Each structure stands twice: as structure tokens, then as C-alpha cells.
Amino acid sequence: MGPAIVVHAGAGAYGAELREHGGEVAEVLRSVLAAAGRRLAEGFDALTVVVGAVETMEDYGRFNAGYGAALCSDGTVELSASVMRGADRAAGAVAGVRTVRNPVRAAELVLAGEQVLMIGEAAESLAAAAGLELWENSAFVTERQRARLRTLAEAAESRGTVGAVCLDGHGRLAAATSTGGINGQPPGRVGDSPLVGAGTWADARVAVSCTGDGEAFIRAGVARRLGGHVESGASVAEAAERVLAEVGELGGAGGLIALGVEGEVSMPFSTQAMPRGVWRAGGEPEVWLS
Amino acid sequence: MGPAIVVHAGAGAYGAELREHGGEVAEVLRSVLAAAGRRLAEGFDALTVVVGAVETMEDYGRFNAGYGAALCSDGTVELSASVMRGADRAAGAVAGVRTVRNPVRAAELVLAGEQVLMIGEAAESLAAAAGLELWENSAFVTERQRARLRTLAEAAESRGTVGAVCLDGHGRLAAATSTGGINGQPPGRVGDSPLVGAGTWADARVAVSCTGDGEAFIRAGVARRLGGHVESGASVAEAAERVLAEVGELGGAGGLIALGVEGEVSMPFSTQAMPRGVWRAGGEPEVWLS
What we know:
By secondary structure, chain A is an alpha+beta fold. Chain A is built from 8 helices and 13 strands. Chain A has helices at 16-41, 46-60, 103-112, 120-129, 143-151, 214-220, 222-231, 236-249; strands at residues 4-8, 79-85, 90-97, 117-119, 162-167, 173-179, 189-190, 200-202, 206-212, 254-260, 265-266, 276-280, 286-288. In chain A, a hairpin with a 3-residue loop joins β8 and β9 (206-212). The longest helix of chain A is centred in the N-terminal third of the chain and has 26 residues, at 16-41. The radius of gyration of chain A is 17 Å and the shape is globular. The A-B interface holds A 84, 89-91, 95-96, 114-123, 125-126, 185-191, 195-198, 201, 214-215, 218-221, 223-225, 227-229, 232, 250 and B 84, 89-91, 95-96, 114-123, 125-126, 185-191, 195-198, 201, 214-215, 218-221, 223-225, 227-229, 232, 250.
């Protein structure tokens, strides 16, 4: 089984955003996949590749992560991200950061240290000390998100989050997820994206990144539970369907991407759309919007 | 099966603290169990009872939660807590709060709202708006913890956290956990205690509260995994042993309390000591230190 990478750009409605900009979104995902594929072909490890992929998606401006993320009710941006390496289950995450240009890079820094989750200004200080680029909070704010906050664009459209899961040439898995939360959320609210076991998981068998109604994903313990199902013998596809059904039982909707150590890919979602794509060794990037 | 409650006051070494104050610690736990038992006999629900039990432990002053919690490297206190109700898996948590006298009460407030996890000043504002008691941060600091920070008392002694799991007279489960983190931790560090699925879990079958090396508990997804094992047919005791072994494989130590819907109790720990106790309908509180 050669290397592979899967990415998503958030589960939600197939609304005006995708009707008008779907082509560009697909192009961005193809570009992210192609770049990740080149790095995998060059021998980069899974963790490095998912961090790079998510970083590019954080920079794009139309995804709900990094620049262009959803706004809190007070018009500011609060960002969260997490990463996990399957081989040794090392993990790192940041929540509630307001100045780190690429939260996934801050999560990668935390993974390299003794902690797993760092929040707020302390996480920002850590990023600053390591030389990561810092922005004024207002620099993350796009006119698109200002308009969405004014109209409180339906929650179903604003679940978006970005994520990546990867199997590298040495059979090692990794996962990364990054988000700006929910349009109009109260400052201080943290969803599933930065929580290892809720929105992100990687072990020796499977890597997972989730998107959707964060509270339901936490209450279902989605990512950890999926890993448990696979450990107990379920296929990656069965495990993914089961945890998404569990989210539904709790009244939530969303989606996830999961990649098994044999290269099995599952990308179920219970919303109208979930922009996503797959690259496999020797192939071209494949992308879907709904 | 009548109602039951199980509490813990943190896994760690059997050090000077327990040698000198073990009798008092045991007495506090007995008192917490007796009060919880009276409430259960009066028909209170599991969630209310675990919150009350943890609140009393937060107030005691010698446990690492609420008043008397461990100090961060800068000498301040940062508190975290979570609660979960098994019947509907409603959950609430706060992390990195510095002024809420009883963090578990703030977690209970969050459970009643739309979010699951609120951090920092936003969580404090929520608590203040609901009329919860606020303290100056310095009011949480005890001379005992100042001395521990000065000497950086061995980490093995400072894992302590408090927690409770309960089965009420209607067969409903709930769990709660509260902590001040690790002696000398960097401000902004968040461990497993406020993370649903890591340090706390409750569903229709089992309720769990963990204590120990928080990072390893997160990376093992302990509480959610335990719930999964039970769902898959393992006994509560088997499930508890398996997840604690998984923490060990990741280089961590600690303990947990788990209570099944048939009243099964498991309280394994891989440290020298874990003050803990059980009360069951019609019986007297039983308490152990190691």
C-alpha cells in the first residue's frame, strides 16, 4: 500500500458559497492534495504532511480556519487546532488563540513538548517564542465573514472546519484538524476540533478528522470511538458509519474523513455537502463537493 | 440495584501528605459519601449528587481542585472541571478559570446551555452572570501549595484531582471531575479533567472519572474508550483495567473510578495511592487511601 492523503473543508449545506465558488474550492483542494502527494513521494512523514496541508487550507480565506475563519458574536476570531501522530499517539492542540496565523503549526509545537492542550494567551506565547507568525486579530477577519455574522448565516452553512489524514510511505498515520468554530459563537466556546478523541484521532490503525456540530461530536466521543471500533475489528467504513449514526442519535450532523493503515478511505457526512478529496500514490487528486 | 456513589481524591504517591493527614482525608471522603447518600435517599438525581460531592471536595483545601489547588509556575491557580449526564449524554466543562470558587458548578451551568466546553474569562463571565461565587485568584492559594511549588514536590504526588460517579434511584448515571492541574504547570496547560471522553464520561451503561498523568489519559482517550469497551460487552472491571493498561503503554500512571448501571464498581490505579470511597444504598461509606 503506497502513501495516501485525504482532506476535508467542512461539512455543511450546499449553499450559495459552494454554488458560486465550488470550482475554486475544488481547485484549492486539488492543489493541496497535489502538494501533499509530492511531499509524500519525497518521503516526508505523515505528521509533516497533514500539518502542511491544513496550513495551506488555513491560509485560503474561504475555509473556516485561520485567515477567513468564522467570527464570534463580538466580531473577533478565535482559532483552534489539533494534530495527532498514530505511531506513538503523540498529540498537540491549541484552543482559543487569537493571534497565531497558522494554529495547526502551534498544535504541532505543542505536540513536540510535554503538554497536549494549551489554551489562549499561553498558547500564543508559545507560538511567538518559537517564531511562528503572529497577526493582529482583525487581520483574520474577512468581509465575507463580517457579512455572515451580520445575517447570522444559518448554522448549517457555518460548521466548516478543515482537516487532513495521511498514511505515509512507512505506513505511519497522522491526523490534523483546524477551525474557527461556529458563526456567532460566544467567545470562549471550544468545539471538538482541538480535542483529541473528539475531533481528531490517530493510532497505529486509523487516522480521523471530524467536522460538524462540535458539541454532539464531543458528546459522542467520535474520533476515539471510531479508533476503538477499528481496534475491535470493524472496517474503517463500518466504524465511520457507526460513529456518525451516534452523532445523529444525539441530534447532531456533520462528517468525517478516516484513513486506515491499509489505505482504506471513508468520508461519510450527514449534511448536504462536505468538500473533500483523496490522493493516492501514483494517482491524480480526486475531489468532491457534495 | 439501589443508588450508589463513588468518589476519588486523586491518584499519586503515598507521601508525607497521606501519612500525616490520611485520617482527615478519609474523614472528609466519608462525610462527602454520607451527604451524597442522604441526597440519593431523598431522590436527588445523579448529576445533582456528583456536582454536590465534587463541590465539597473543591472546598476542602487539601485536594487539588478549587480552594487549595496546585499552583502554576507563576504562582497562580487555573481550574478546570467537567460533568456529564449518562441518560442523554449532556455534558458541560470549563477550563482555565481563575476566579470561579467552584468550577464544577460552572461546568454544570455549561451543561445546561448550548455549549459543552467554555474556557478562560468567558467561562468566568458565564459563572458571574449566573450568580456563582467568584474569588480573587490569590484566595485559592494555600501555604501548603506555595511550599509545594517552591520545592516542586514530585509530580507523582501532585497528580491529584477529585471526581465522583453516581447511580441514582432511577438507574441514571452521572460523572464529574475537577482539578487544578499539575504543580508548577505552565499557565494555559489543560489536562484530561475538563475533557469529555478523556477524564470524564457517562452514558446509559457506565460513568467514569479519571485522575493521573493527564496527557497520557488524553492520548489514550481513556474515559470514552472505557465506555466503548462496556458497550461492546466487557465488564466494568475489565474495561477499567484495559484502559489503565493502555495509559501505562503510553508511559502514564493514574487511576479512575467507574460505576456501571448495575451498580458494578471498579477503582483501579497504577500509583501508590488513590484516596477513594464508595457508598451504596443501605450501607455505610467505605473509604480507602491506598
